[in-house]
Amino acid sequence: MEPLDRVVKPKTKRAKRFLEKREPKLTENTKNAMLIKGGNASSTVTEVLKDIYALKKPFAVLYKKKNITRPFENQTSLEFFSKKSDCSLFLFGSHNKKRPNNLIIGRMYDYQVLDMVELGIEKFVALRDIKNSKCPEGTKPMLIFAGDAFDISEEHRRLKSLLIDFFRGPVVSSVRLAGLEHVLHFTAVDEKIYMRSYKVLLKKSGCKIPRIELEDMGPSLDLVMRRTHLASDDLYKLSLKQPKALKPKKKKNISHDVFGTKYGRIHMQKQDLKKLQTRKMKGLKKRPAEKKTEDRENHAKKAKLG
Q1: What separation, in Å, do the N-terminal and C-terminal C-alpha atoms of the chain show?
Q2: Quick one: DSSP state of residue 179?
Q3: For 6, 8, 179, 264, which has the most beta carbons within 10 A of its beta carbon?
Q4: CB–CB of 83/111 below 8 Å?
Q5: In 3-state terms, the chain is what percent helix, strand and coil (to 5)?
Q6: Which of 186, 44, 56 is nearest to 124 (CA)?
Q7: HSE-CB of 148 using CA atoms within 13 angstroms
Q8: CA dihedral defined by 257, 263, 264, 268, rounded to 10 degrees?
């Protein structure tokens, strides 16, 4: 019998590089998403998967073959594909009489399903149907969420977190103004979620700051929430845990206000203001009589101390 914790040793340099890429890191790689088509998939579901893949490229893998699986009943195939393609996010599309035009969006933790939300497509406008200019591949989008449901309902709150994970793209330290050209807008109203995609147009305004216009780019989706599979609070907290090396070290006597302004507290010895050197002026000079009285007081103090 083979041992349960079998250590795989690479035999070639290529295999070694492959295993090193998949090793746990302090700073995670950009999360990849896999887009899977179910055993029965309508033309609408197929088009949605293609359009989401176009938005996610190059951090996505699109499986073109049909995969007969039901994520809410059996997750083993999803976990297998996650390990195979090294993807921690997934979008599964299917279609049947009970749940027509169905999408399941989810994420993995340690190659096991963490969260899943099932969404039904009620209305869809494809990328190709909107005859406007598109954003280049790999553009990092700006995400906007509107609606009280995203802050009140626990299911909507998790869905918001899931959508941020799915569409956020690579983590960058800075972005130039011209690079902010794609907006993804999610609105939660009356138990429905509306997804809209816009291209940002920078127009002349007569001053340094350009005038901004939003142009519908597609895809456009009207979704309704169906089933959910949410991780327990303990597992969710465990998935958010950060290694100690990444946690910022606390610096003494340094604080920040609400606006991010840095304040420092300096500890100094008590100053004798009498010995403070001020500007020399004739009017402030001490007279001989005053000097004599000061000297007498000093001698008297020393005598008492002695």
Answers
A1: 92
A2: G
A3: 179
A4: yes
A5: 30, 30, 40
A6: 44
A7: 2
A8: -110
pTM score of the predicted model: 0.71
- Residue 66 has, within 13 A of its CA and on its CB side, a CA count of 11
- Note whether 200 and 112 are within 8 A (CB): no
CA proximity to 220, closest of 122, 152, 295, 77:
122
Both tokens of 88, joined, read 């921690």
Q: Report the phi/psi class of residue 147: left, alpha or beta, with left for phi > 0 and alpha for psi in -120 to 50.
A: left
Q: Which two structure tokens, joined as six digits, stand for 274?
A: 């009498």
Residues 6 or more apart in contact with residue 119 via CB below 8 angstroms: 102, 103, 104, 105, 193, 223, 224, 225, 226
- Tell me, what amino acid is at 74? N
Residue 61's SS3 state is: strand
Rg, the chain, Cα only: 32
For residue 203, give every residue at least 6 positions away whose Cβ sits within 8 Å of its Cβ, in sequence order, or none: 210, 211, 212, 213
pLDDT in 10s for each residue of the chain, 306 residues: 444 455 667 778 887 776 777 666 666 778 889 999 988 888 999 999 999 999 988 889 998 888 888 888 888 888 888 888 888 899 999 999 999 999 999 998 888 888 899 999 999 999 888 888 888 888 889 999 998 888 888 899 999 999 999 998 888 888 787 788 899 999 999 889 999 999 988 888 888 888 888 999 889 999 999 999 888 878 878 877 777 766 777 778 888 887 778 888 888 788 777 777 777 776 666 777 777 787 777 777 777 665
The position carrying tokens 């869809």 is 124
Q: What's the length of the chain?
A: 306
Nearest Cα neighbor of 224 from 44, 47, 102, 43 is 102
